[in-house]
Each structure stands twice: as structure tokens, then as C-alpha cells.
């Protein structure tokens, strides 16, 4: 049983790990309380900041004129750059980070024949699942109903310590390929 | 926690009449509590630790932030390494090659006459990354930070206080400078709320403009980093080798005039002792 079996970006298998049990909710509340008080948080936990590999990927994305989306290992969108704002139809300064269940519903994916694309075939979904880079060209339709043919290249962020810390998806207009 | 600063200089030792006041030795800090001794980095300042009363315990732990020359050049002249009765632990950042191999390039002719394997002390090497570990009374956390090559900073905590040590660090690297959201700020979890932060402050603002990507901070950025992370006291170190005592005075006076932060900040001076 999953939270969003029909989600755009994630396979059913991945959603199966996102079941909200009472203990999940309890821990979420505890984490919110801890993060509310910086001093208390400092004494309780060290992993407040993103890994350096994520931070540097964001800094790089900030310098690029191609749309870049950065997610954590669960697919939550933790950063998108200005060119990506045009594709998403939203501004990062307005939305901040976006949970997978929110940003995963923004797009509608189709193949060249107009058939809906299975989420398991999307490069970012595959990267998050297999921790490998992928590339695919397909059609997306955003909330405004605008359809566009797009190529997506995704790669995993695997840091120096060999730790998988997130993923990056770069959207290319095929004319840019 | 008793902290003594033995090396304040970045890049290359600059010992002479123009640097007498602040000091010219490269990075090295002695940290002692309950008879346990940590040595943070092994720049040329480590020669003063040779005379430390705190070496009596028979064990010393050397924590290396990275293996740039100004952080290891004193290692071969650290006497406990040549004392068979001493237990020496060296902790350093993991990389593709082992720590033993990388330090072995220094401990081998023609750079150094003694091979690593021939050091008579009881030597143990520890490779760390985003790690948590305990040495005596110290709870220590290491995290990778923005600096060329594998480089970590340390957060050292005992029952009384927290000392954060990030001597080589460029948190402002990027198109928009220092991120104000601490979640996106390199090193912020090491420094958060620390009683004392010793941080890279190698350049003036103007110098930094010409050295972006070199891995260091302007003094102004370092102070802003400390403000963002809520530290209680800041010591700026890793002084540029070109900065004489006179220049450092000028830089610091200018900094004081321009900034009113709610925490004390100062420039590192060799021999300075801090009790936390
Ligand atoms: Zn250095
Ligand atoms: Zn360095």
C-alpha cells in the first residue's frame, strides 16, 4: 500500500516505503519541534545542513542556463534553478522545497505516440531507484496545459564517502541536444 | 576544554620581524581536557606541541582537516612519532587512496628520510568522512566542507562546551555568495551554536574577489558565517602569508569599525590560550 500509487515520478514499489504510520507522524512532529529551536537542535542533531555534494550541485545549477532540478533521495524537490522555474511554472523563492507528492503532479508525461508514460520509465525515477544516470526524450504537459517535447538527463549524487545523497535532473529542449 | 593556538598562518610559514606579533607558523591547535590531548592539524606550529605538558599521558590524537602541505608539514617533526612508548592516532579525510598511502608520500625519501613504516611509536590511522567518534572526553563530528580536495571540519564537544574548527573553508563559493539559509551553507552544522569557532579568514574582501574558488574566505564572509550559525565567539585564522602584523592590524580595525555583531571576534595569535 502506498501514499500515491498514481504519482508521476515514483514507482509503486518506492511509494510502498512511504506509508505514514502513527510513529512517522510522531517523529515528524518531534523533528519540527526540534528544528523550531536552533539552540536545542544544535545540541540534539548535527545533520541540519545538506551534504556538501548537494550544496555544490546547487551552486553549479545556479550558474547554468539550462533547467536543473535537484531532489533528495526520496525524490522531494529541494532546489530548482531559474531556467527550471519556466518549465515548472513556479518560482523557487515562492515555493521553496516541494514534497514529491506536490511537484510530482505538476507534469503529465506522454511518449511520441501520445500514450501516457509509466512513471518507472522516467529517468529521474530510475536514477533514484537504481542510482545510475539515465536519459530519455518524451513529452511533458504542465498545469497550464502546454505540451513540450523534452529530453531529460538524470544522474545520482554519490559523494566522496560513497553515500547516495540525492539526484539531479537536467531538462533539455531537443533543439539544444 | 583548554585550547592553545600554535599556528595561525595559511599556505606557507612566514616567520620574521613583520609577523612576530600574530605569528608565522602554519595551522596547528592543541586541545586538552581531562588529560586527553588532541592536535588539530600538523602545520609548522606543531613544533610547540613537542613541549606540551599534556603529552605526558602517553597518547595523542592528531586530527587532520586535509592533507594540504600547510596542514601536514610539521608532522615529521612531531616528537611523539619517534617515541616507542607513545600511542599516536592520526585521523584524516578518506579519499580514493588510503590515508597511509597519501601520508606515506610525505614520509618517504626524498621528501623525508624516515619511512612511515619505520616510525617507532604505536601508530594507528583512522579514515573519516562525515563521521562521529569519541576520543576520551571528546565527542567529535567531522563533515566535508567547501575546499579543494577532500577537506573536513571538526565539531568537538565535551561536557562543558563546543569548539568548531574549520580553518580552510570557502562557504561563499557560488554565484550569489554566502547562502543565508543555513541548510545550504557548507559547514553550518559544525559551527551551529558553538561556544568558539576558529574559521578561515585569509583574505580581505578585495583580495577575495580575485581568489574565488581557491578555497578560502574573506574576513567579512567568515564573520557573516559565524553570525548565521549563531556562534558565541569567533577567532579568525589562516592569515594570508602576505599579511604582516601592520596589515592585520589595519584589516581588523577596519572590520571592527564596519561591523557590530553580537559576539566577540578576534584574529588568531600564536600562543593564545582559550578556556572553554
Ligand atoms: Zn591551509
Ligand atoms: Zn587547504
Task: Describe the SSE topology.
The complex is a heterodimer of chains A (177) and B (276).
Chain A: H1 12-15, H2 22-36, H3 38-44, H4 52-63, E1 68-71, E2 77-80, H5 82-88, H6 92-95, H7 100-103, E3 108-110, H8 123-130, E4 134-141, E5 147-158, E6 164-172
Antiparallel strand pairs in A: 1-2, 1-6, 3-4, 4-5, 5-6
Chain B: E1 2-7, E2 28-33, E3 36-40, E4 59-63, H1 69-72, E5 87-93, H2 99-104, E6 122-128, E7 132-135, E8 138-144, E9 152-157, E10 162-166, H3 188-191, E11 196-200, H4 205-209, H5 219-228, E12 234-237, H6 245-258, E13 265-267, E14 273-275
Parallel strand pairs in B: 3-4, 4-5, 5-6, 10-11, 11-12, 12-13
Antiparallel strand pairs in B: 1-2, 1-14, 2-3, 7-8, 8-9, 9-10
Bound molecules: zinc ion (ZN) (2 copies).
Describe this protein's structure.
The complex is a heterodimer of chains A (177) and B (276). Chain A has 177 residues and is α+β, with helices and mostly antiparallel strands. Chain A has 2 domains: 2-45; 50-172, Beta-Lactamase, CATH 3.30.450.20. Chain A contains 8 helices and 6 strands; from the N terminus they run H-H-H-H-E-E-H-H-H-E-H-E-E-E. Chain A has a 6-stranded antiparallel beta sheet with strand order 2-1-6-5-4-3, sandwiched between helices. The longest helix of chain A is centred in the first third of the chain and has 15 residues, at 22-36. Chain B starts with a strand and ends with a strand. In chain B, 16% of the residues lie in helices and 26% in strands. The radius of gyration of chain B is 18 Å and the shape is globular. In chain B, helix 6 links the parallel strand 12 and strand 13 (265-267). The mean pLDDT of chain B is 96. Chain B has one domain (2-275): Ribonuclease Z/Hydroxyacylglutathione hydrolase-like (Metallo-beta-lactamase, Chain A, 4-Layer Sandwich), CATH 3.60.15.10. In chain B, the strands form 2 sheets. Chain B has a 7-stranded mixed beta sheet, with no helix packed on it. In chain B, strands 7-8-9-10-11-12-13 form a 7-stranded mixed beta sheet. Chains A and B meet through helix 3 and helix 4 of A and strand 8 and helix 3 of B. The structure holds zinc ion (2 copies).
